[in-house]
Amino acid sequence: MTTPVLFDVPGPKARARIRIGTVVGALVVLAIVAFVLVRLGGNGQLDGQRWAILFDPSTNVPQRLFEALLRTLQAAALAMVLATALGLLLAVARLSDHRWVRLPVAAVIEFFRAIPLLVVIFALYFVLPGFGIRLSTYVALTAGLVLYNMAVIAEIVRAGILSVDRGQRDAALAVGMRKSQVMTLVLLPQAVRRMLPILIAQLVVLLKDSSLGFIIGYFELLRQARSLVEYFTPRFGNDYTFQLYVAAALIYIVINVLLSQLAKYVERRTRQNAKTAAAAAPTLPAGVVPGQES
Amino acid sequence: MQFFTDNFPLLRDAFLTTLGLSLLAGLLALVLGTVLAAMRVSPIPPLRGLATFYVETFRNTPLTVVFFFIIFGLPQIDFVVSFFVGAVVSVGMYTAAFVAEALRSGINAVGPGQAEAARAIGLTFGQSLREIVLPQAFRTVVPPLGNVWIAMVKNTSIAAGFATTELAATLPRLANANAGDILLILLAVVVGYMLITVPSAYGIHRIERRVAILR
């Protein structure tokens, strides 16, 4: 925070008040934390032995969670590659000079942006079998992620292409490049570079959304944790339930925070880069808000 | 068509559940998000820290994981909530982080002269925030808040995975129907979501034009 405009630089009296506020605020936070810990402790959830299961290879739990993590990353990584490739293609197609290309592509993009991702996944997993096409949970999840995110990425890239200075396009045409060359050699590289932080933010969203696999029963982290719980419960009662859920959630959160930090790092570098810093920040079209889906 | 009319009550109730879930979660997100945004600009450091921690955590957590904690985790500290209430709390708490971020950018967009003038005539932090800054901030963030709202309506579909029969949940329930019938249901579900999002987008545009401040 730079110089605060909302409140005066505190004088002696205000400083005393802020100190009291600080202490009270800290106490309230501590009280909430303590309450949760006491409740957990009262139920025996803080017992070291219960947490040890997460790190003891002889129980097979760490291996299972690791495999589940790999499956999460497998679905997310494939979807990231395909969604980016298709997104680039759709962005270019939506800017085509030919109406018969432009209009259908616009319809596809708007359709997939308008409906919830989970409905896309459900449509692939529950509706397609009616037409004799039976997809595995892996394919349904990945395809859903691709279809939804390619539409969002297409809009991001399109905004990037439109933000490149008109003179670039005119100059490229003037030196005799064909339309496809103008796009691939001049406009797209600048657009992608400029939109990189937003693109990465969208890929973080894609990784977050891979947790939807839980709902259709793909064995990603959450579903694996749930199935381990279902395995342990008849044998040991509810002893390990909470620990396994916390472990699965923490893995998700740590990976997402890391990717978000990468996005921030790229954004800082992009801003320092003279080639992109010279241009004004591109404005996104209405409704393109990366980072807001689940 | 027979199948569709047979299941119309189910679809209607599911639509109303989605609508109710959206409205309640939206209200919770708006209130909680406003409080969080105020905390983030307040003079008291622990409140700033707490709000920052909240926003960063929830923005980096999949909504499914939030649901997971509310539905399966809360019982571990002896709070048992119904599935619907759990869904409202999950979606509301998750969306509050995005509302807070949007509002904070709105607060930053209010001219510094406004806040300085408020201080100059002797308003306290709370007064200047309530009377001067927040009303202007809300006006500037109508479009981003609208986007948060539409994203949230779509996000309520995740409640389908946690035993709330809202629109998306009708698909797995009726999945055994034959091809043509289930396609009709899918169409109805898509239309159901659009019945909320399309008028919302129109309404947001109207509100934006009415309250916009010319600077």
TrEMBL record, chain A:
Keywords: Cell membrane, Membrane, Transmembrane, Transmembrane helix, Transport. InterPro entries: AA_ABC_transptr_permease_3TM, ArtM/GltK/GlnP/TcyL/YhdX-like, MetI-like, MetI-like_sf. Its main location: membrane. One of its GO terms (biological process) is amino acid transport. One of its GO terms (cellular component) is ATP-binding cassette (ABC) transporter complex. GO terms for molecular function: transmembrane transporter activity. The chain crosses the membrane at residues 20-41, 73-93, 105-126, 138-157, 198-220, 240-259. PROSITE patterns: ABC_TM1 (PS50928). It is a multi-pass membrane protein. It is found in: Cell membrane. Residues 69-263 form the ABC transmembrane type-1 domain. Belongs to the binding-protein-dependent transport system permease family. NCBIfam families: HEQRo_perm_3TM. This is Amino acid ABC transporter permease. The lineage of its organism: Bacteria, Bacillati, Actinomycetota, Actinomycetes, Geodermatophilales.
From TrEMBL, chain B:
GO terms for molecular function: transmembrane transporter activity. GO terms for cellular component: ATP-binding cassette (ABC) transporter complex. The chain crosses the membrane at residues 53-72, 79-100, 182-205. Keywords: Amino-acid transport, Cell membrane, Membrane, Transmembrane, Transmembrane helix, Transport. Residues 15-195 form the ABC transmembrane type-1 domain. GO terms for biological process: amino acid transport. It is found in: Cell membrane. It comes from the Bacteria. InterPro entries: AA_ABC_transptr_permease_3TM (IPR010065), ArtM/GltK/GlnP/TcyL/YhdX-like (IPR043429), MetI-like (IPR000515), MetI-like_sf (IPR035906). The keyword rRNA-binding does not apply. Pfam families: BPD_transp_1. Its main location: membrane. PANTHER family: AMINO-ACID ABC TRANSPORTER PERMEASE PROTEIN YHDX-RELATED (PTHR30614:SF37), MEMBRANE COMPONENT OF AMINO ACID ABC TRANSPORTER (PTHR30614). NCBIfam families: HEQRo_perm_3TM. Belongs to the binding-protein-dependent transport system permease family. HisMQ subfamily. This is Amino acid ABC transporter permease.
